[in-house]
Amino acid sequence: MERKIIVCDVDGTTLKAGENYFKKEVKDAFNKVLNEKSYLVVASGRTYRNLYKIFDKNNDVIYIAENGNQIVFNNEFLKINKFEKEKSLGIIKYLYSVKKELIAILISTPFEAIYYEDSNIYIDEEEEPRYKNIDLDGLISYLTNKEVIKISIFKEKRDKRFYEIYDFLIKKFKDIEVFDANNRWIDISPLNGNKGGALKYVIEKFDISNFPLYVFGDGENDISMLTLTKNSYCPNDALEKVKKIVNHQYVHFEEVISSIF
User: Fold this and answer.
1) Which domain holds residue 126?
2) Do residues 119 and 23 both lie within one domain?
3) What is the spatial distance between Cα 149 and Cα 153, in angstroms, rounded to a whole number?
4) How far lies 24's CA from each of 12, 135, 214, 218, 254, in Å?
5) Do 102 and 153 contact (CB within 8 A), yes or no?
6) Quick one: which H or E segment has residue 65?
7) 186 beta partners
8) What's the pTM?
9) Could you state, in chain order, the average pLDDT of each consecutive group of 10 residues for the chain (261 residues)?
10) Final residue belonging to a domain, choices 139, 156, 190
11) Could you tell me if 179 and 201 lie in one domain?
């Protein structure tokens, strides 16, 4: 059987709202891809550490993390895309000015995820704050010697204010990527920090351009990779702008994988 490239987003695409771990049927679908000696590429806004965990530390998976700003295979960091320092600090200062409207600000570096919530700093998935009662100066100071590769904000409702913040980020800060992730998160990346560019890099790096490419996604941050193939899929509850550009919609991811193989 001809080897294939299966590329899938996680949240909203293979993992539904409220789910913390993949269902057995979905895990079986991932294993089917690998058992057929095909390439499984996970492209997500999540951190590499989190993806590696939920994929059971599988080193056969190619990880496109942080919306394409970090690419990892077999625990080797193949590529990292980062903000210019002043750009990232400017964005963070703006988000701090509206932080009372947000649940959390997530700042990703190549090696840790920094959650700024209720004026406390949490690192990765720690339950207890690493630092308490941190103001803007303290947050900036903490980030002084760190490279920022992605910034995300979480708002309880995707309401009018959600989109006002979204629009302001695009207008105020030039040369960045801003995405509605379809799950109450707004993701902000350096220019050219997107899943499509990262997927092109992976295909070239692994010299697999001759293999059929199948891509699955549901959010605005998936569009750049969904447009790379005619074999584009989204769940039937994806963003409307995603539905308009894909060629196929589905209810169950695992059923599509079965049909492909």
Assistant:
1) 85-190
2) no
3) 14
4) 17, 43, 21, 21, 10
5) yes
6) strand 62-65
7) 153, 180
8) 0.93
9) 94 89 96 97 95 96 97 97 95 96 95 95 92 96 95 93 95 92 88 95 97 96 97 96 97 97 94
10) 190
11) no
